[in-house]
Amino acid sequence: MKILIKNGYIVDGSGSKGFNGMILINEEVIEKIAISIDCDPDIIIDAKKCVVTPGFIDTHSHSDLQILVNPYNEAKIRQGITTEILGQDGISMAPLPSEYIMDWRKNLAGLDGDSNNINWNYETTEGYLNLLKKTGVSQNQSYLVPHGNIRMEAMGLDNRLPRDIELQKMKDILRRELKTGAIGLSTGLIYIPCAYADTNELIELCKIVKESNGVFVVHQRSEADSIVSSTKEIIEIGKKSGVKIHFSHFKVCGKKNWDKIGEVLSLIENAKNEGIEISFDQYPYVAGSTMLGVVLPPWVHDGGTNKLIERLRDSKIREKIKNDIEIGIPGWDNFIDFAGFEGIFITSVTTSQNEDLIGKNIVEISRIKSKDPLDAIFDLLIEEENAVGMVDFYGKEEHIVRFLNHPFQNVCTDGLLGGKPHPRAYGSFPRVISKYVREEKELSLENAINKMTYKPAKVFGFLDRGYLKEGNFADIVIFDLEKIRDKGTYEDPIQYPEGINTVIINGKIVFENGVYNKILVGKVISSYWKNN
Question: Distance of CA 62 to CAs 50, 144, 159, 323, 479, Å?
Fold first, then answer.
């Protein structure tokens, strides 16, 4: 099957100036790119008045569970995303020993959701990736080994440092998982059990990642009060292990911390100058999204969700939790402190009894329940067994622009689906083009596309994607620059964007003229590093 794209303005992803030309696709790959191509194709796509780019790469996705339940992932495809990186924030689907399945599902539910409609007995990364291959995927999917899963398999969910034998076991597990095709290691140092690790544990694990030339992807320990020391910790890990560092959803949270932005950027720039490979991704919104359980001090999570619920039910312990939230704990990101009760909105629950709370902030929920705001949070977490999603407001538009313009940055969604999600799950990539390229002219079109395609491809080792080049896989997006826009809002987030005309994945047309062809043409991308 040959497809000819003609009359388009080609922006190849490299950052170079675009040009008018044609692209010939032969089966899965790009056969030719030229000003004019003489051929007899099976399909002709007229891209007149449109931009033709590589498919967008989402370097921070939470589709891990959802693509097993519904592999078509329409919210991502309709915004032009052709490749995703799963296994984020140190807590994901695999590895998952059978004895931890129920505890882990509760721990994961607030971030990636839960389902009784899949087989949870896959045990390892290899088992999970094989399950994706068996089910089929609509996009290309790649996977990071989550630190929390490794820790759980080696030593459970306890709040303590590993013994020497346990640390060695963690290293052996990580090496095993990397050998089956994972592209690196992720951690989320605000999530349990990752938060219980010290710097040395991470250095030792990252030495294993370095062996395979993988990437260390990190939600750092603090994005608020302690962000300077937190950033220094990650740089130290990079120095002592030699690993490539990629900061997840880079930001500085809370008005009192905004003056630290310059210092934090200087830290990572200086580290880069010293030879540490550093990059970061960012979504184009001033609010984040995660699980409501992060508002609790880390010690409350010790031992897993069942222990957490026991503590929340104990009146004396509940008072201690309140005291720690009100006073704060050094080094712990206090979401209530920087976002406020009015800035935290519930996005998902698992029971019907609390569905009416979705879309409401904690102040509103407190009034509905006639409870103190903290008691309203604690009781909701008990009722939902910790499986509650939230949106939290943390920054300003000028910060988004500053990070977007930074040379280390690439675009992501950090998209959580289900419930009433953050609008980034439906509109991050179109938003960058419409708002920051077309309307505000903060980025050139070529620079923006580079940050969505070739830059992330280079960071994560996708050697034949992210760049419109002869011989590369034909992952391609065609859009109207004058019409492309995101439509989702915090109040009504589930809205597909406009202006994207065509999405091609591995040489197959999956979206065209508003019609989504439900075909599973994606690939599970195993690590390229081990062969290079």
Answer: 30, 12, 25, 33, 25
Per-residue pLDDT at 494: 93
CATH code that applies to domain 56-286+394-483: 3.20.20.140
Of 443, 401, 442, 428, nearest to 485 by C-alpha is 428
CA 422-502-423 angle, to 5 degrees, is 5
Residue 223 per-residue DSSP state: S
How many whole angstroms separate alpha carbon 129 and alpha carbon 143? 8
Give the pLDDT means over successive 10-residue stretches in the chain (532 positions): 97 97 98 96 97 98 95 96 98 96 90 91 96 96 98 95 98 96 96 96 98 96 96 98 98 94 98 97 92 93 92 96 94 90 92 93 96 96 93 92 97 85 94 98 98 98 96 98 95 94 98 95 80 42
Peptide bond preceding 297 in cis form (omega within 30 of 0): no
Q: Tell me the residue type at 269.
A: E
Tokens standing for residue 316: 């004396």
> How is residue 437 annotated by DSSP?
I
d(CA 205, CA 144): 13
Instruction: State the burial class of residue 441 (Cβ atoms within 10 Å of its Cβ: 0-12, 13-18, 19+).
Output: exposed
Cα gap 269→271, rounded to integer Å: 5
φ/ψ of 31, rounded to 5, equals -90, -40
> How many angstroms separate the CA atoms of 234 and 237, rounded?
5
How many Å apart are CA 36 and CA 58, to the nearest integer? Answer: 32
Task: Give 453's DSSP letter.
Answer: T
Q: How far, in whole angstroms, is CA 315 from its chain's centroid?
A: 36
Residues 6+ apart with CB under 8 A from 169: 153, 154, 155
- Cβ-contact 248, 194 below 8 angstroms: no
Return the closest-CA partner of residue 143 out of 76, 215, 203, 193: 215
Task: Name every residue whose Cβ is closer than 8 Å to that of residue 478 and which is 6 or more positions away in sequence.
Answer: 5, 8, 45, 47, 50, 51, 52, 53, 500, 501, 502, 503
What are the C-alpha distances in Å from 300 to residues 113, 119, 162, 304, 391? 21, 30, 19, 9, 21
User: Which residues fall within 8 angstroms of residue 320, CB to CB, at 6 or more apart?
Assistant: none
Domain segments of the chain as ranges: 56-286+394-483, 291-393
**Neighbouring residues of 319: CB distance < 8 A, sequence distance ≥ 6:** none
The DSSP H or E segment spanning 346 is strand 344-348
Q: Could you tell me if 41 and 24 are in contact, meaning their C-beta atoms sit under 8 angstroms apart? A: yes
Q: Please give the pLDDT value at position 526.
A: 87
Check whether the bond before 193 is cis (ω within 30° of 0). Answer: yes
Residue 388 tokens read as 């509650």
